[in-house]
Design brief:
- With 104 residues, this protein is an alpha+beta fold.
- The protein has one domain: Ribosome-recycling factor (Topoisomerase I, Chain A, domain 4, Orthogonal Bundle).
- It has a three-stranded antiparallel β-sheet with strand order 1-2-3, with no helix packed on it.
- Strand 1 and strand 2 form a beta hairpin.
- Helix 1 runs antiparallel to helix 2.
- It starts with a strand and ends with a helix.
- The mean pLDDT is 83.
Amino acid sequence: MLILSHRFSIYYHSPLLIIRAVKVTKPSKESRELLVRQCAALAEKAKQDVRAVRKDGLDKYKKLKGKLSDDELKRHTKELEGYSDKGVEAAAKAVKAKEAALMQ
């Protein structure tokens, strides 16, 4: 069995049967908008997950407050904030890129 794709056509080939030229049309504007909304919802879920991990990390640092010096605690907290900010920013950037690609 072999499946080949050429631009907007799909060809299926098996030793006994050949099905050819199944046209795949471009998605409509409504379906592209639906995909963009789904992508945005997934990105929002990713942002929430990153924030939840950040909160868990901050809670663990608070429990270590007596064992770590204040400077170390601030440094670790700031580092954790930086990682979470990068994660949220990456999700937002990915949504913008995917939206631009889908709406073309």
